Amino acid sequence: MTNEYVSSLFSLEGQVALVSGASSGIGAEFAFALARAGADVVLGARRTDKTEALATKIMAETGRKAVAVPLDVKDRATVVAAFDTAEETVGTPTIVCNNAGIGNPAWALEETEEQWDAMMDTNLKGMWFVGTEAARRMIAAGKKGSIINTASVLGLGASPKALSYATSKAAVVQMTRVMALEWQRNGIRVNSLCPGYFVTEINDYYLDSKQGAEMLRKTPGKRAGNLEELVPALVMFASPASGFTTGTALPVDGGHSIQLI
Fold first, then answer.
1. Residue 2: pLDDT band by 50, 70, 90 thresholds?
2. What is the CB-side half-sphere exposure of residue 238 using CA atoms within 13 A?
3. Cα distances (Å, whole numbers) of residue 153 to 138, 158, 166, 170
4. Which of 174, 180, 240, 258 is an S-S bond match for 246, by CB 3.0 to 4.6 Å?
């Protein structure tokens, strides 16, 4: 039997969600979850063949509208165009999962300037582009909403071979706080999720290796997380249930960030 009280707290009926980095991994999981919770979804990514297939699957399985749009978060013009298409087809996004990101393990003295710039352009500047465009659209439409930035436990703690990645994610946590302070007056909440190790295209080669398996055994949870274990925190931030929650950085990591710190 459905618990109507819980359902009403976390329902996303009548809302439009935009997910960046939606072609695979965490972004694809988030897009499906938001649709299952009742939102129409806009799937943004560079690999439109994957998002178009995902959109078709979401519509078939959830009955919600799903639209795939080209989106390269490093290119502000494509960010603006993605929001234009969203507004023209399903409405102003009131939930924005700012999720696109890359990783590139490297020792600090071996990382190149090109690698550093690519990390910052995607993981930080890209989130700035999407987050500010999202807020601009909500304010213009007179709508309240929720922006969820995907950070990382490495934005809260440190690890070798993660100088640019950890720096970019720590900056995302701080950017989240400033955005939250500035936009609370507009009814726009901004929070960050800080996942621990979840198997995605970014890290599967490492986590499947002997070294990766040994690293996981040393964490409190002794395993990588399952993507569906990120969903409850996402839906909480997206829904009316967190109407007075903003500026937070929530680890979902089986206790890994406690160990890091």
1. low
2. 35
3. 29, 8, 8, 9
4. 180
The DSSP bridge partners found for residue 195 are 252
The closest alpha carbon to 123, from 93, 103, 108, 137, belongs to 103
Catalytically active residues are 165
CA 89 distance to own-chain centroid: 22
List the domains of the chain with CATH numbers.
12-260 (3.40.50.720)
Q: Determine what percent of the chain is predicted with pLDDT higher than 70.
A: 97
What average pLDDT score do residues 136-165 get?
95
Nearest to 153 by CA among 204, 98, 195: 195
The sign one gets for the Cα dihedral 87, 89, 91, 94 is negative
CA distance 128 to 54: 26
Q: Which residues contact 94 (CB under 8 A, 6 or more apart)?
A: 15, 16, 17, 138, 143, 144, 145, 146
Quick check: 133 and 72 in contact, CB under 8 A? no
Question: How far apart, in whole angstroms, are the C-alpha atoms of residue 14 and residue 90?
Answer: 10
Whole-model pTM: value is: 0.93
Q: What Cα–Cα distance (Å) separates residue 116 from each residue in 112, 113, 122, 175?
A: 6, 5, 10, 19
- Pairing assessment for the beta strands 145-150 and 188-195 based on DSSP bridges: parallel
